[in-house]
Amino acid sequence: MTERRPWSRNDLLVAFYLYNKTSFGKISARNPEIIKVSNLLNRTPSSLSMKMANIASCDPMIQESGRNGLKGASKADKDMWAEMSTDWENFYITSVEAFLTIANKHEESESTDSNFIGRERLVQSKARIGQNQFRQIILSSYNDKCCITDLSIPKLLVASHIMPWSVKPSERLNPCNGLCLSSIHDSAFDQGLLTLNSNLEVVLSSKLLHQNNPFVDYCFKQYEGKSITLPTKFIPKEEFLAHHRTEIFQQ
To answer: HNH nuclease domain: which residues (predicted)?
Structure first.
C-alpha cells in the first residue's frame, strides 16, 4: 500500500462518509468496516482511522466534551467540515457518490456485505440517500440506542426530527436536528406529548401525566425529569428544541 500520500478530495469524502456513520468510540484501526474501507482506498487501517480522528477534532461536540480527537487536522479537513455543515444534503450525496466510486471498482465490495451501499443506491433519489444517511448518522451518534430508554433494537429505533423539516428544509438533514428514539417515543415526541428542556431532560405533556394507566407509567412517566443519554457527536441544537417546546409540545 502507498503511505504518506496526500489525501485527494474523493478520499477525504470517503473518510467523512465513514466518520459520520461510525460511533466515536469505534474509530479504531481494528474496526472491521474501517479495515474494509481502507483496503478500498489502498491505505492502511491506521491511516484511515487517524484521518477520522483528525476529522473528529473539527467536530464542536467532540471539542466541547473534552475529547480532542487527533490534533493535526489539515486545512482540507476543516474546509470540508465547513462544507458539510453548510449543506448537509448535498454533502451526504457527494460523500455517498465518492464511496460508490471506490466500492464499485473492487469486486470484493459488492452486495455480500450489507454494511456497504450497493449498486442499487445509484438509482435512488437524492432525498432517499439523504434520509438513509441521516438515519445512519443519528443511530451511530447515539450508539444505536434510544436516548430516553436505552432500547437497542435497531428495527425499533427512529431517527426523529426535532424541528419538522417542512419548517426549515435546509435543516432537515442536520444531525443536530435529530434524536434517536424508540418508535413509540418518536410518535409521542412528534405529537407533542413529550419534549426536552434546555438541560436535555424529559418533559411530559399533561395529557400523559393525567393518564392513570400502567402502560403509560412504564413507557413514559418513569422518564419524566430524567436526562437523555447524550450522543457522542452532533448534540441536539437548542434552537431546534426551543421550537419544539413552543410550537409542538402540548403543555
So the answer is: 146-197
Computed from CA positions of residues 203, 209, 214, 216, in that sequence, does the dihedral angle turn out positive or negative? negative
Task: Give the phi and the psi of residue 191 in degrees, each rounded to 5.
Answer: -90, 0
d(CA 61, CA 68): 10
Question: In which residue are the cell numbers 455543515 written?
Answer: 85
Residue 165, C-beta contacts closer than 8 angstroms, at least 6 positions apart: 171, 172, 173
Structural domain span for residue 162 = 142-248
- Cα 152 to chain centroid distance, Å, stands at 15
154 shares its domain with 222: yes
In sequence order, the β-bridge partners of residue 204 are 194
Cell 427512529, located at residue: 158
